Write the structure tokens for this entry.
Amino acid sequence: MNKLDSILSFNQSFVENKHYEQYVVGKFPQKKIVILTCMDTRLIELLHSAMDLKNGDAKIIKNAGAVISHPFGSIMRSILVAIYELGAEEVYVIGHYGCGMTGLSSPSVLEKAKDRGINMDHIDSLKYAGIDIDSFLTGFEDVTDSVKHSTDLILHHPLLPPDVSVHGLVISPETGKLDVVSRDMKRVVK
């Protein structure tokens, strides 16, 4: 049995036995917050517990490194939707120590892609199309600096309302301890 068959078998029982009922909440975040955090598996339950979050309290956006790579990409769009359509009043960017994006380099990723059968001629052609594959596949050196960069992109976004607070934190994936990088930042409108 592959993983999908196992998941679907469990899901059938989950639905038939109405185990979903304990998770029923509304679509609006009860604590009126949106969190951008890393996809690291260690944070799935730890982050919620460390922040006293229950199901339905926050909108959670996850991606590698809690990084906003483009001010008009899907991460920023999700943050803006959480604010304008779902009532979020605060934004939290939460990186973590020991992140896999720390020190990530394009040559390392591309070598692994090549080993998995990706034709490097196709990758080389991206450069002619104006795609900077090296930047796309490069991580960061310091998680605190990365959190500052992402909070800065949010704070300077022209669609961020000036009354929304932006916070930057770093969590320990071992203990759940939160270290504040920045707090209560607001966009200055001129």
Remarks:
- The chain has two domains: 27-100+141-185, 105-138.
- The longest strand covers residues 178-185.
- The first helix runs from residue 3 to 16.
